[in-house]
Structure formats: structure tokens, C-alpha cells
Amino acid sequence: MPVTDIGIDLGTASIIVYVRGKGILYQEPSVVAYDRDANKILAFGTEAAQCIGRMPGNIVGIRPLKDGVISDFVVTERMLRYFIRKSMGNWNILKPRICICVPSGVSDIERRAVEEASYRAGARDAVIVREPIVAAMGAGVDITRASGSMIVNIGGGVSEIAVLSLGGIVIAQSIRTAGEAFDEAICQYIHDIYGLIIGSQTAEDVKIQIGSADPDRSLRQVPVTGRDVDAGFPRTVSITSDQVREAVSPAVRRIIEAIRVVMEKTPPDLAADIEKRGIVLTGGGAMLDGLEGEIAKATGIRTILADNPQQAVAVGTGRYIRAMADFEKQKSFR
């Protein structure tokens, strides 16, 4: 069966690819391994992430997206081309229609950059859609109703807070505080308290294992190994869940404050709808243990973590593609 429709969540931390009729095919880091001496790309995604830090110094990792937008156009195009061809398998002769999401706050120039990269990577047609819309669709929210819904998508580099109604965005705000900010805060905390330097992958592992935004969670701890700042040798310390909560709490507060700002700007009738329907969280960063409870406590509004929040945006691009296909069928029968 030819692959003709592909949905892509082109995120700062990871790229997730949805193929119509097959579902999620790939979820890999948004990174490439680049050989500076030979001036060429060696690997993409998971393979690239496994190379970085374990290869000679001339091989470095490049993340071609920053804060949800393209920072390196050429590398983004190459990465898109790689995943498009990987998704299409033996049907490379066909050009697919691609749906890619972008943060709600991107400029027209940034939006056109994503569109152009898609066409240059081999798209027959490129549909660029605002991230909160597909995040809501992927979470199962009916955005076509004449009532307000609030979606908070916490990705790798950007958190998007949006109020939706009648299929569109009424008000939205993007902040550059998300999952990677949690990791950076953990790295900085361990450096400041213990004099250890750890990598972002170690910080993410700590976050996943014992990270929590809720002070009432039971105390847990894990060993963390890093390089001693003074001695230069590896050293291991034990980190508790309370310490991780202390490290990430400023970032959590910034996200909650952004939600408050959006709520204050929301029309009263839509705000009443949100109070009834609740706030929906999506994105990998939303998986921080206890985050939905802290948001509910701070806002007084029921907060729900979507099923499989990390893949909600990619699933939403797939549903958006299906909705477009259905619309085109309806037009052809008129």
C-alpha cells in the first residue's frame, strides 16, 4: 500500500512520525551526528544520539531545532528527508502529503521555513498547522464545538498554552520553559550542591525515575554519577526526589504563571467552559510526576493528563490529515 499521508511532530527534543493507516512509526531524538572533519552527516535520530559522546571529538551532535523552530535549515531538511524516506519504505517514487505542526507563536518567516524544508525534503503537499490544535485533537478534545477548551502542550523546548473554540485558537501563549528546562535545572542543581557535572541524558533519567512536582509524594532517591568539578574524576552521589522537586520548581512556577496569564485574557464565557471541562496537558514534559495536581491546585481547575501525552501531537497530525481527506471526499461527491 503506497504511503501518501505523513504527520510529523517536529519537536526540539524528538521527532515523531505518524503514517496514515499505520499509526506512529518512529519516535526518535531530533539530532544528527555530524563529522566536522569530513563535513558530512553520519547519522540521524536514535543512531545519532548513540554516537554522540562516544566517538572521536570531530563528531558532534547538532539539534537543528531550537525552541520549536528551525535554527539550521539545511540539517532540518536532511533530517526530514531521512524520516520521510524511512517511513515510505519501497514507495520512495511517490511524494507524500505531509502535515507538520509549529508552535502558535512562530513568525510567518519561520512558518515558511518549515514549509520550504518539507517541500525540499520531498513532500507533494505540505500542510503547516498550529501545535495546540493538533495537540488537542490527539488528546481527543472536540475543538469544533462552540465552547472553550484549554490545552497545555509541554514539549522539549517550548510550552504552549492555548484556548480553543470552533476549531481555532482564541488566545495562546508560548514560553521557552518545557521539558529541557527541567533537565537543565537538575544539571545546575547537582553542579551547585555537589560540584558534579552531569549530562542532559543523566538529568533526564533522574527526572523520569524520581522527578516530581508534588511535595506530598513519598521520598525516593537514586545514585547519580558525574565528573567532579575540582578533581576531574567520576564521583557518585545520592539524589532525592525532594531535591529534584526543588530544582525544577522555578520552571514549574513559570508554566503555571503562563497558564494564569492566558486565563486572565480569556473571554468570560470561554473561561466558564474551561472550568467545567478542565485543562488538558499534553507533551513529554507534561509527564513530570504530579504536575497536573500542582496546576489544578494553583488554578482551582481540574487538570487532566492526556493518554500517551508524548505522542498526542503526532497522533493529532494524523487525525488532521484524516479530517482533510474526509473533507476532500465530501467535495468530490458534490
Explain this structure:
The protein has helices spanning 45-51, 73-88, 108-120, 131-138, 179-194, 200-210, 241-265, 268-277, 291-299, 312-332, and strands spanning 5-10, 14-19, 23-29, 32-35, 40-44, 59-62, 65-66, 69-70, 97-102, 125-130, 149-154, 159-165, 168-175, 196-197, 221-228, 234-240, 279-282, 303-305. With 334 residues, the protein is α+β, with helices and mostly antiparallel strands. It folds into three domains: 5-134 and 312-332, 2-Layer Sandwich (Nucleotidyltransferase, domain 5); 140-176 and 253-308, 2-Layer Sandwich (Nucleotidyltransferase, domain 5), CATH 3.30.420; 179-247, ATPase, substrate binding domain, subdomain 4 (Actin, Chain A, domain 4, Alpha-Beta Complex). The strands form five sheets. The protein has a five-stranded mixed sheet with strand order 3-2-1-9-10, sandwiched between helices. Strands 13-12-11-17-18 form a five-stranded mixed sheet, sandwiched between helices. Helix 2 crosses helix 3 (108-120), helix 4 packs across helix 10 (312-332) and helix 5 (179-194) runs antiparallel to helix 7 (241-265). The protein starts with a strand and ends with a helix. The model has no long low-confidence stretch (mean pLDDT 89).
